[in-house]
Write a structure and sequence with these properties.
By secondary structure, the protein is mainly β. It is built from no helices and eleven strands. The chain has strands spanning about 5, 10, 20-25, 30-40, 45-50, 55-60, 65-70, 75-80, 90-100, 105-110, 110-115. The radius of gyration is 14 Å and the shape is globular.
């Protein structure tokens, strides 16, 4: 079973930056997309950024121009560079990989906490 492990979360001041990483325990075949979601207290899980297998990306309106999703295939790692952070970005960030040719599976990490506070 593939495991995804996120890292890079923490406490940062408003206006600061963080880079999240998500590393898979093994190479994943037939990836459809890789994505970052977040869950804030009292809110529904939100799609933050997504990168398709072909490399196209898409972002939530709230993070466009501030966040960048990228991947390093040889390292089986997904990244989320987060700049100009504000309090509304405070959440648990989760890594997601959807993969599989005939019966796709969704893989999830355990999440990493990002807290933006002065």
């Amino acid at each position: 079973q593939v495991q995804l492990v996120e890292s890079g979360g923490g406490l940062v001041q408003p206006g600061g930056s963080l880079r999240l990483s998500c590393t898979a325990s093994e190479s994943i075949a037939n990836i459809i997309h890789m994505a970052w979601y977040r869950e804030a207290p009292g809110k529904q899980r939100e799609l933050v950024a997504i990168i398709a297998n072909g490399g196209s990306t898409n972002y939530a309106d709230s993070v466009k121009g501030r966040f960048t999703i990228s991947r390093d295939n040889p390292k089986n790692t997904l990244y989320l560079q987060m700049n100009s952070l504000n309090a509304e970005d405070t959440a648990v960030y989760l890594c997601n990989v959807r993969a599989g040719r005939w019966n796709p599976n969704n893989y999830w990490g355990q999440g990493t906490q990002v807290t933006v506070s002065s």
